[in-house]
Write a structure and sequence with these properties.
binds zinc ion; 7-stranded mixed β-sheet; alpha/beta; about 20% strand
């Protein structure tokens, strides 16, 4: 864990496009071969985005993710974007662009004017839904696209809506954001008890999504890529007790887990 991962989260957007058979625009970062290879033949993608789970946190509490790992043939080390704060990172994850290209270079949540997967996929007839909590980055920066937005006050409502959407079977790409670990990590430190409990919740939610997709989509002939895809890591600090935003491995290195169902 001394250095930085080679591939960045900006490789996720072009990979999503390629999996759906769409050629990424030239200005996007390169797609990730191990991801597109794993997802060959997938016609559905579900991206679960838990906030701020860095690779060192994942490693330290790997026991909590054992069941998730067992279901995920690909554990992909990725580099976050600088500065590693939520809107910068998700802008890159879903636009395939670097911060200097998409324009979000600090903690701010403007409406993105660059092209994202949320612009390109509807043009190809793909049905896309974002499920996220009000006021959070994913709920703000991708507005105005020809996709469906399900924005709620609580994470519980978001997760219930995600389950409902899987059962309804109407979307090709669903993005679900959960900010619970980030919230508690800032308040009690990345390894504090309340934060550790959130890791359990994120692992449980991934497993729940996995079994719902298995139950509702697979019997209908769909092949789905399910991602466990945090945006950046975090570090212990004096005040607040947990933070992120520094150009160091604790904040910049993350893992994405990918499962095919
Ligand atoms: Zn974040």
């Amino acid at each position: 864990m001394d250095g930085f991962s080679n591939y960045s989260i900006a490789g996720v957007a072009p990979s999503i496009l390629r999996i759906f058979g769409v050629t990424p625009p030239e200005d996007m970062q390169p797609s990730i071969d191990s991801l597109t290879g794993l997802a060959e033949g997938c016609d559905r993608i579900f991206m679960y985005n838990p906030d701020a789970i860095g690779s060192w946190v994942f490693d330290r509490f790997e026991d909590k993710f054992k069941a998730c790992l067992a279901l995920s043939p690909l554990k992909l080390p990725l580099r976050s974007m600088f500065p590693p704060v939520t809107p910068v990172c998700f802008a890159s994850m879903y636009s395939g662009l670097l911060p200097e290209q998409h324009g979000i270079r600090k903690y701010e949540k403007p409406l993105l004017s660059c092209t994202t997967v949320f612009d390109l996929l509807p043009k190809e007839g793909k049905r896309v839904a974002i499920v996220s909590t009000a006021g959070d980055s994913i709920s703000e920066i991708f507005l105005g696209r020809n996709i469906q937005y399900y924005i709620f006050r609580t994470i519980k409502e978001c997760n219930e809506k995600a389950a409902e959407l899987i059962k309804k079977d109407e979307h090709d790409l669903i993005v679900l954001y959960n900010g619970n670990y980030d919230y508690w990590m800032h308040r009690v430190s990345p390894t504090g008890l309340a934060a550790r409990k959130q890791l359990d919740k994120n692992a449980e939610e991934f497993l729940r999504l996995h079994s719902l997709i298995e139950e509702c989509w697979r019997p209908r002939g769909h092949k789905t890529l399910l991602g466990f895809a945090p945006d950046h890591g975090c570090h212990r600090s004096a005040f607040p007790p947990g933070d992120h935003g520094l150009d160091q491995p604790s904040d910049m290195n993350i893992y994405h887990l990918y499962s095919v169902i």
